[in-house]
Specification:
single chain, mainly alpha
Length: 103
């Protein structure tokens, strides 16, 4: 056998023994500490955004008069175009309206 074949065999044996001893890792997610403000389109926001984001995430975003409709429109658009968020076009304005009116 050539040196390369010995090396390939050694790597295969090492890899299979590592994989055989791997154990699943479990973890407990912390409880939500923030609840979303009630408002029109809250359900649309929750159905589209909370699969990836906790309620805490919204609270960490910039707030104030300068961070309303244009800011949230840009954020939702980024989630769709950059990160591939599967948000229906009909839900975009509802999400933006909810966030703009409440945060």
């Amino acid at each position: 056998m050539t040196t390369l074949k010995y090396f390939v065999c050694a790597v295969a044996v090492a890899t299979s023994s590592i994989a055989a001893s791997a154990k699943p890792v479990g973890y407990q997610l912390p409880d939500e500490t923030v609840t979303m403000k009630p408002g029109k389109n809250l359900e649309t926001f929750e159905n589209n955004c909370t699969a990836c984001h906790s309620s805490d995430y919204v609270k960490t975003q910039p707030q104030g008069p300068a961070f309303k409709t244009n800011f949230w429109q840009a954020e939702v658009t980024k989630m769709i175009k950059v990160y591939g968020a599967p948000i229906d076009e009909a839900d975009v304005s509802k999400i933006v309206d909810y966030l703009s009116e409440n945060y």
